[in-house]
Design goal:
The protein is mostly helical. Helices cover about 80% and strands about 0% of the residues.
Length: about 400
């Protein structure tokens, strides 16, 4: 059996700066593709697929959740394969597959067809995690926090422009145009990875070595640091996704319409968190590098939680927008600092498996978030469902504070 491992980014001949720029653009395009159409699924179901108001919450919840469920199940498997064949190939695989599924989403005719294609998208997903892992493997140690913060701005930038592009495209040309644009964007991102991204050299596993996902999961149970990171990704994603199925219809409550004006205003609301991320993510990553990733994580989670406690007091659309933006300024610091913690608690040769496991945890958060949000939204005012986000974030901050001395030992 051959050993395998990754050298530190500072010691390799890989151009980490070029990788960072290219993968930033790729992540931006992938996230813009997602947010240009997926947040508007409730209106897609209502206007294009003929779903009635009596079942809209059910179909919205399941079509959101099924993608994350598929990704949660498959992520450890793709992560293990990444350690065997390389993260670059995994990014290419996921990019091609997602481009195809987005094209299929633009031609579905029934809610059940939409559900099936969303399930397929979850099974073959993984472009963003593979890109993040590629960057983390080639960055010099002293630039991990900063670099992951920069990557988070790619996520945030896509989150900003995606809803704006998708909202206006949907209003002008119909929602199916947004899915077609998403497919093209993902194809471009994949071509860039093929032609411009270098992978950190490492000695791979022997070709005959089998992948044991259950064994990897069992082994991870002994790594308290990895377990903590998995829990963080689950809880943060839960908070991010809990409101996703509700926001478009919440905006419709303020406007009194489900037409073009709601699409445009919803696109701006969805973009606020991304705008906040562009502003704040690199700063929080740099602060984590200087003052400690866990200390910074506790700060951003607690502040975002407190801000979301004001949701029940919201009475106008602009008040809701302000709360969303302020919460996003702090929550933008969560992912770069949690990802930096991951690089400290896992050996480089296990990075692919580790990213697979945390992606699985994150996707399970994506399953539970929309389902909880849709379920609660069917009988509670949306503002009180959003209040739950603040409660979860404050609980997550308290959990991190409790774990901090224990993680130092790890």
């Amino acid at each position: 059996m051959e050993e395998h491992g990754f050298p530190d980014g500072a010691d390799t001949q890989v151009n980490w700066k070029k990788n960072l720029v290219v993968l930033w653009i790729g992540v931006f395009l992938a996230c813009a593709s997602y947010t240009s159409c997926i947040p508007f699924l409730p209106l897609y179901l209502l206007q294009e697929l003929g779903i009635g108001q009596d079942t809209i919450h059910f179909w919205t919840g399941v079509t959101f959740a099924v993608t994350f469920l598929g990704a949660a199940v498959m992520a450890p498997y793709w992560g293990a394969w990444a350690d065997k064949v390389g993260q670059r190939k995994m990014a290419i695989r996921a990019g091609i597959g997602l481009a195809i599924t987005y094209g299929m989403l633009g031609v579905v005719q029934t809610a059940f067809q939409l559900f099936l294609v969303r399930a397929l998208a979850g099974i073959i997903s993984g472009f963003v995690p593979a890109s993040m892992s590629l960057v983390s493997s080639c960055l010099p140690k002293q630039r991990i926090g900063w670099g992951m913060g920069i990557m988070q701005t790619g996520v945030a930038s896509g989150t900003i422009l995606g809803p704006l592009i998708g909202g206006y495209l949907s209003a002008w040309f119909g929602m199916r145009a947004s899915f077609c644009l998403g497919a093209v964007s993902l194809f471009i991102a994949t071509v860039m990875v093929v032609n411009m991204v270098e992978e950190v050299p490492f000695i791979r596993q022997h070709k005959q070595e089998q992948i044991h996902v259950l064994r990897d999961l069992r082994d991870s149970m002994h790594n308290k640091g990895l377990l903590f990171v998995m829990a963080m990704f689950f809880l943060i994603q839960n908070c991010n996704m809990l409101a996703q199925p509700l926001i478009t219809m919440y905006v419709a409550e303020f406007t009194g319409s489900t037409g073009g004006i709601t699409l445009k205003l919803s696109s701006w609301i969805f973009s606020l968190a991304g705008l906040a991320g562009i502003i704040a993510a690199p700063l929080w990553g740099k602060r984590g590098q200087r003052h400690g990733f866990l200390r910074t994580l506790i700060l951003v989670l607690a502040c975002a939680g407190v801000i979301n406690l004001f949701q029940p007091a919201v009475r106008t659309l602009w008040q809701f927008a302000v709360v969303q933006f302020c919460s996003g300024l702090f929550l933008a610091g969560a992912y770069p600092n949690v990802t930096a913690v991951l690089t400290e608690v896992t050996p480089p040769e296990m990075r692919g498996k580790a990213f697979g496991l945390i992606t699985s945890a994150q996707q399970f958060g994506g399953v539970s978030g929309p389902l909880i949000g849709s379920f609660l939204g069917s009988f509670l005012p949306t503002r009180f469902v959003l209040l739950l986000i603040g409660v979860i974030l404050l609980g997550t901050a308290a959990f991190t504070r409790y774990m901090k001395p224990r993680l130092r030992k790890v």
